[in-house]
Structure formats: structure tokens, C-alpha cells
Design goal:
Number of strands of chain A: 10
Strand content of chain A: 25-35%
CATH architecture of the largest domain in chain A: Sandwich
Shape of chain A: elongated
Helix content of chain A: 10-25%
CATH superfamily of the largest domain in chain A: Jelly Rolls
CATH topology of the largest domain in chain A: Jelly Rolls
Distance between the termini of chain A: 20 Å
Largest interface: A-B, 53 and 59 residues
Oligomer: homodimer
Number of helices of chain A: 4
DNA sequence: ACGATTTGTTCGTCAAGTCGAACGATTGGA
DNA sequence: TCCAATCGTTCGACTTGACGAACAAATCGT
């Protein structure tokens, strides 16, 4: 809930309820009730809080860790198209205020590559172009074929392993 | 503003104001005033809207195209790596505050697909996974092979044409 | 051409969020 | 020990957002 998010961010900033309310320009009674779970604030109030906390507003809506999502080559919601020989699949709609870096990767079979965990909140999106590979968070590795799309948290240890020569895939690195 | 965001997402979903209000379970008068810019909604209201629009809530907060750039499969700045059989190429470092939608496309040879121009400021990133194709803005079409990366403004007329069966490629649609 | 439906807006009413003040509880000096 | 300051909560008064109905305008179907 939002109550928990506000409390979490406030304690993370090391600010007291009164101080935060003062900085945000809202009554501390309002903030108190918000953190208690009573009522649902207006965007104006939330905006003031987010500004005072110096965090993106969307952070106050953060739910639990996003689960991994695997979309096989023959899966995914195919978008409507006028021409039948054109099949577009929306893999991931990006939330605003995020950075997404796109990588193209060519990998050879051999030892397993263990990636150092990225900063907290990082999300990786993988799309295999050709070859075959095995990748994913530790314990949730998946066998991937061309066209497969796999997304998972990047702030946990994860591995890449090519099963065929010149295995090519795409990584979209999403940072909060 | 939020007013514009709601309007944008609603029109994108092709829903009328009355219909959306009904689906979201809010009064259409409320929605009308929101889109008019008057008032600041409560999170409960926004949540209902986001759910009805089937978009993440954070998308309701907020909203120049670079020249074309073509990176051949054997081109691109290869990032440093500890292991020689791992070659990652950064194709596009995303600027902040942009939306990027990722599409996977499979296309068959045949007639040329002419894309209706997207909203102003849209940028498309293409990466060919397999097959062969010809695509790009009108007059700047390029022959593309697997691994080729091509980016160009999406708010101008552009075309896609597969040269081989089951030509697969990736499109990252970047909206301002 | 006409009625019927749907569109989006404006109005008054009610409920709910926000505010300011006062409250008990806790901490820190002097 | 006592006073002062700060902590977070609770209360009533005010402000504002959400609702429902009525409204003009546009679209549709016969």
C-alpha cells in the first residue's frame, strides 16, 4: 500500500514525520493519517511528499518485486495488423522516468558467464535472436531459443550461457 | 500534467469518456473535470482509471528525434568484457524521461508495409534477428541483415519489407 | 427528416481529504 | 528534578473532490 511506501521512504531518508510534513508543506496530521493507512491522498499531496523526499513519484506506488516473465517465441499478445504477414508482439511497455539501455550480444559456448548484480531496481529484458542459450536469475535459469523473451530482476545474481556458436541476443537494461 | 496523460492514454485505448468512466466505476463528470485540468484526483480514482486503461499507474504521471543511425552486425562499440567469447554492443543509451516500447516482429515477404506516421517525436529502433529485410524512412530505406541495427524518426512515413520468410526483428518504439 | 443513442460538460449535494490546534509521550539539557 | 523541545496521534472546522442528474451537441439508424 501507499502507506507502507511513504513510511519506507521517509525512514530511508531519515526524516521525522513532523519534519517531512513541514518540508512538504502539508499538515503533519495529514501525513500521520496517511501513514496509518486511513484515507487516500490526492496527487497534490503525494507530489509534495515525493518532492520533499526527493524521489520519483512512481516510487510511492512501488509494489512487491516484479516476478520474472518469460514469453516464448510463439507466445505473446499479437497486435492487430492490417496485413497478416506482419506479427508484432509488445514485449514490454516501459514506465515513464526510467532509463533503458539496449545491448546486442553475441556469445560463444564455453564457461558460464556470471553477471555481477546491477544496482537495486534494475530490470533486464532478453530477446534471443539466433542460436540457443540458457540464462536467468540463479535458480530460475531458462532454456531459450530464438524469439524467446525473458525478463527478470537484474539486481540479483544471474548467468548467461551460450549453447550454440554465435548465439545472438538482445538485452534491454532498465534502470530506475 | 495528469490531464494530458489521461487524455492521451484514453484516446490511445480508443475509449470514450463515458465508457471509460463506466469501466473504471467513476462518475463521468469526475473524469471530464480531470481531463479539463480542474482538480487533482485521489489515488483511488487514478487507480481505477489505470486499471480500466490497463496501464501501470505510474504511466499517468508525465509524458527530439536524432538523425538516423545504422549499425551493421559487425559494427558498433564493443564493450569491455572479461571473457572474450562475450561481445555486447550498446546500441542506444536512452535519455531520461522517455517511454520505450519493445516489439518483436515476424514478417513474411510480399507487399511492402507502409506504417502510418506515429506521434511527433517518436523514434524507432530496429534490430534484425533473422532473415533479411528492407526498411526505413521513405527515401532512406536500407537493406538489413541479421544483427543490423537501424534507428530513425518514427513520425515520418516509413516502410517495412521482408526479403525472406519468417524474417524476425525487434522494434523499440521510443515516445517523448 | 426525425427520434434515439452517445458524446462531453455543468450544476448542486454529499462525503472525504486537508488543515490547524491541542493532546499525551518521549527525549535531552541544565 | 524540572523545563523545553520534539515526537506522533487525535479532534473539530473548513475545503475540496466525487457523485448523480440535467444539459446541449454530435452521431447513428430508420
Amino acid at each position: 500500500m501507499i502507506a507502507a511506501a511513504i513510511k519506507r521512504e521517509r525512514s530511508r531518508a531519515g526524516k521525522s514525520l513532523s519534519a517531512l510534513a513541514a518540508e512538504a508543506g502539508i499538515a503533519k496530521s495529514t501525513l500521520s493519517q496517511l501513514e496509518a493507512g486511513n484515507g487516500n491522498p490526492s496527487v497534490e499531496t503525494l507530489w509534495a511528499l515525493a518532492a520533499a523526499l526527493d524521489v520519483p513519484l512512481s516510487l510511492l506506488f512501488e509494489t512487491e518485486a516484479p516476478a520474472t516473465r518469460l514469453i516464448r517465441a510463439d507466445e505473446g499478445e499479437v497486435l492487430a495488423s492490417e496485413q497478416s504477414d506482419f506479427a508484432a508482439v509488445l514485449l514490454s511497455r516501459s514506465p515513464p522516468n526510467v532509463r533503458r539501455d539496449v545491448y546486442r550480444v553475441v556469445m560463444q559456448p564455453g564457461e558460464i558467464r556470471r553477471a555481477q548484480p546491477h544496482p537495486r531496481g534494475t530490470v533486464e529484458h532478453m530477446l534471443v535472436c539466433s542460436g540457443q542459450m540458457r540464462a536467468g536469475p540463479e535458480g530460475q535459469e531458462e532454456q531459450l531459443w530464438p524469439g524467446d523473451y525473458y525478463t527478470y530482476p537484474g539486481d540479483h545474481p544471474h548467468t548467461y550461457e551460450a549453447k550454440q556458436p554465435d548465439t545472438m541476443f538482445l538485452i534491454v537494461m532498465e534502470a530506475p
